[in-house]
Amino acid sequence: MKYLNTAKFRFYHNLNDFLPEKRRRVVFEVEFIGNPAIKDTIESLNVPHTEVDLLIVNGNPVNFNYKLKDGDSISIYPEFKSLELPQEMHLKKKIDGVPKFICDVQLGKLAKYLRILGFDTLYDNNYKPEDIIKLSLDDNRIILTRSITLLKNHRISIGYWVRSENPVEQLIQILSQLELIELITPFNRCSVCNGELETADKKLIENDLLNDTKKYFDEFFLCSNCKKVYWKGSHFKRINEFIQGIRKSI
Questions:
Q1: Which residues on neighbouring strands pair with residue 102, listed in sequence order?
Q2: Coil/strand/helix, residue 95
Q3: How far from 84 is each of 52, 79, 89, 103, CA to CA, in Å?
Q4: Which residue of 74, 109, 127, 225 could cross-link 131, Cys pair, CB 3.0 to 4.6 Å?
Q5: Rounded to whole angstroms, how far apart are CA atoms 88 and 105?
């Protein structure tokens, strides 16, 4: 007597990053009891639902509520920007305009880089998972995290698992995956607190400036939140060179 049902699964493109080597880019069987939701089964295989954009079962598109049946054949796809499909087939939430982010506690350097490039990015090394989820939901922010477990939370609809441990590689991954390169607007956001930068009157801030800074620079910017002062010194050139290097890497 057969007690377990089986279904065939095949994951595509970067969804294979979550799988053990023997299950990558091949069809494999999964055993299950009853008729579990396909979302639960996918996440039991270590793939968070936030990375999945299209589910095909026996040749037909389904959503995350589909109940698995014995003998099902399932193909799971990430988001493909170049693939034109009816909107109702997409499972990932669509973000209109320039996206906003919230980074987990492991991604402080990435948060700083995103702010330098002009992206609204929240980060605090005291954030708890619940804080990150709430802020994401309240302000429609994409969660960037190194935690697969966090992205499996059923309340999260927009999130991305950052593959690399290297901050520069992380930045390149995000800009490439989310197609953000044309949305870069550097020098308009504070890299420290995420506040917006405003043009500052030199006369009003000169008491906070070093003598050489006052002597050689006349254009200044002030963070609207933390009041940190910025100017186009040697760091300005380094940041421009950094951005050009990032652009060439994508």
A1: 122, 143
A2: coil
A3: 16, 11, 10, 30
A4: 127
A5: 34
Please count the CA atoms within 13 angstroms of the CA of 238 that sit on its side-chain side: 5
What pLDDT, on a 0 to 100 scale, did the predictor assign at position 204? 86
Residue 210 β-bridge partners: none
Beta bridge partners of 161: 145
The pair of structure tokens assigned to 152 is 């499996």
CA distance 132 to 120: 15
Residue 169 neighbours by CB under 8 Å, 6+ apart: none
The rounded mean pLDDT for the chain is 93
The DSSP string of 211-223 is: HHHHHH---EEEE
- Sign of CA pseudo-dihedral 213, 215, 217, 222: positive
- Write the burial class of residue 97 (CB in 10 Å: 0-12 exposed, 13-18 middle, 19+ buried): exposed
**What pTM, to 2 d.p., does this model score?**
0.90
Q: Which two tokens stand for residue 185?
A: 């607007």
Coarse DSSP helix, strand, coil percentages of the chain, rounded to the nearest 5 percent: 35, 20, 45
Contact 60/87 with Cβ under 8 angstroms?
Answer: no
